[in-house]
Predict the 3D structure of the following.
Amino acid sequence: MGNVGMTGHIVVGMTGHIVGLSRRQARVKRGFDITASAFGLIVVFPILLIGWLVATIDTRRNGFFTQTRIGRGGLPFTILKLRTMHSDPVNTSTVTTRSDNRITRSGRFLRKTKWNELPQLWNVLIGDMSFVGPRPEVPGFADQLEGDDAIILTIRPGITGPATIRFSNEDIILDSVDDPDSYNVEQLFPEKVRLNREYVESYRFAADIRYIFLTLTAVTSLIVRPSEDDSDRHRVLRYEDHVSDPIVVSEPDVARIAESA
């Protein structure tokens, strides 16, 4: 973690300057997470059960997928998802594109509807994650943050957040580049860090509620439409009535990142 040390819920730099959420903000955020995740698990339990059964049959493995991710303080934790991919001894990349042949038939539906993320309500309940925050990365990314960027590690990673919403079509972006792994490291991850750092530095609980609302709305109304070009590799993703400037992904102009509304 470079020059940053952890003490409790906040980060203290070498100068002694405290950054991150205030204790009151952290308590309110955690209180909401516990209450909402407990209620959510009860509500979505039938969906989880069906999803687990379908994923188990489709992949012929345990329908729950676990993986090590980096959480608050740069510490590892085990994330829980519904399994959506077959194992491939050749393709071991942690980057997933839209056309990834490892994705199962049921997995495409689960990923499109975001049902594969529902088990993370358990991660939220036990304190590994929050509803809103930076998406938890695999080792080698967030745990390498240094300096001012390490403020991101003062909070729990989230199911949704500003970077998650901005890059809701990440699989399409990565599917359109020659080297998805390099593009993720050199282009996407730095922009996610910038967005997540701004989120922590200007944290407001009201913003969390807004991100949750946008996410729930997007899950039900996110529409993928062909653009005027109408080619398979040129698409527009819109959050209906909530994001005025969609991210346009085209070839060769894949690197374009639209400004948020």
The chain has a mean pLDDT of 79. Residues 4-222 form one domain. The two ends are 33 Å apart (CA to CA). Residues 223 and 238 are 6 Å apart (CA to CA).
